[in-house]
Write a sequence for this structure.
């Protein structure tokens, strides 16, 4: 057997993640080494040439960005580098690639339609082994929101006595949202690595079971158990996604959506139990809308998930779209347990739920997305008979995105 075509070094302080990534890559013919510290990675680089290095941004002895710069400035042959992080951003990308002779500048541009945008330019020199500048690299970031926010804060400071009463509530909400955003980042970083390990191991175990010659009935039971394991991991990932969606900045991008196909695909991909009957109807005049497809998909998926969870013993769910008030109304109804009267007034507030399972963010995310799409959401519910959630979205000529 010939030598492996590519040599890969994985650098991460999470031993479980390293083990599963190594097993997957080796199964595809790569030669893989691992390191849990930057110093050990540098030592391995001096002993062997690697084609690719995958580096976590957070390492126990030094940041992954420092390791990247040491690889750039050393005489180690050039290698393809991949940065692995739960805190991805263009700023991190700039710092990851950054070297010496770096500078940044802020300037204003005017677009063709007359809008003013603020741009920050990160630029740095790249040098060869003789320390001569060979070229320059840079990343340009649109920082309009940041600049405008600073201008608004400056206005607040100069007119504090006039606006303090009106803005106190908004500022408190902004502080709460910032705290939730920080929590979402930490939870996302700390949970997604072990969740990925679980999914990777389930994938490996499924392949091993299929190739082990196990009795078919036993194999079927193991695969069902593995499906349950992956489903639970995906549910945990949904909680992380809800936290991120509830706190991240939103920029809707409108596209033409053909609702019959959109809703059919959504329900086909959703994991709806066999005991739940699903029907979809789209009235004439409601077939097409302009909206952000990813945000609308998340809205409907969360409503469908709530409807399924409200029918633990099975039932009927209907998704119906119809023209309404110059736009389109999409209703998701179920024959479930209904919503307790005591939580109805605060149903769309974060961390409010009538279920034993979940954090109560699903409907908060729905409300936030619908608001950003220029729409409205309402509901009707009767305990023991079911609920109807109706999302109204503006027509094409009213769409704000």
């Amino acid at each position: 057997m010939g030598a492996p075509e590519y040599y890969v070094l994985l650098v991460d302080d999470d031993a479980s993640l390293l083990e599963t990534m190594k097993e997957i890559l080796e199964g595809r013919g790569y030669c893989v080494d691992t390191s849990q510290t930057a110093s050990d990675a540098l030592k391995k680089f001096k002993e062997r040439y690697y084609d690719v290095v995958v580096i976590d941004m957070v390492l126990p002895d030094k940041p992954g960005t420092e390791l990247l710069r040491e690889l750039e400035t050393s005489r180690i042959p050039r290698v393809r580098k991949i940065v692995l992080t739960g805190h991805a951003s263009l700023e991190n990308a700039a710092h990851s690639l950054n070297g010496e002779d770096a500078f940044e500048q802020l300037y204003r541009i005017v677009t063709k339609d007359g809008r003013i945008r603020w741009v920050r330019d990160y630029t740095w020199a790249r040098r060869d082994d003789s320390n001569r500048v060979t070229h320059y690299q840079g990343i340009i970031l649109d920082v309009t929101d940041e600049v405008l926010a600073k201008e608004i804060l400056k206005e607040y400071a100069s007119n504090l006595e006039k606006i303090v009463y009106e803005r106190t509530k908004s500022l408190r909400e902004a502080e709460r949202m910032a705290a939730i955003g920080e929590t979402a980042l930490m939870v996302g970083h700390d949970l997604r690595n072990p969740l990925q390990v679980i999914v990777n191991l389930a994938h490996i175990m499924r392949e091993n079971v299929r190739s082990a010659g196990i009795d078919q009935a036993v194999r079927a039971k193991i695969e069902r158990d593995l499906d349950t394991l992956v489903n639970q991991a995906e549910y945990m990932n949904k909680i992380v996604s809800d936290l991120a969606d509830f706190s991240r900045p939103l920029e809707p991008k409108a596209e033409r959506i053909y609702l019959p196909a959109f809703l059919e695909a959504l329900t086909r991909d959703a994991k709806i139990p066999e005991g739940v009957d699903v029907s979809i109807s789209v009235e004439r005049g409601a077939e097409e809308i302009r909206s952000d497809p990813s945000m609308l998909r998340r809205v409907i998926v969360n409503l469908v998930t709530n409807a399924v969870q409200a029918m633990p013993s099975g039932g009927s769910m209907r998704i119906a779209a119809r023209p309404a008030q110059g736009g389109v109304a999409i209703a998701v109804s179920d024959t479930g347990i209904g919503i307790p009267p005591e939580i109805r007034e605060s149903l769309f507030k974060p961390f409010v739920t009538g279920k034993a399972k979940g954090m109560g963010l699903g409907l908060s995310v729905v409300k936030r997305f619908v608001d950003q799409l220029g729409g409205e959401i309402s509901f009707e519910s009767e305990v023991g008979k079911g609920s109807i959630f109706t999302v109204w979205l503006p027509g094409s000529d009213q769409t704000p995105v």
Q: What stands out?
A: The CA atoms of residues 170 and 176 lie 10 Å apart. Residues 1-88 form a domain with the Rossmann fold fold (CATH 3.40.50.2300). The mean pLDDT is 81. The radius of gyration is 26 Å.
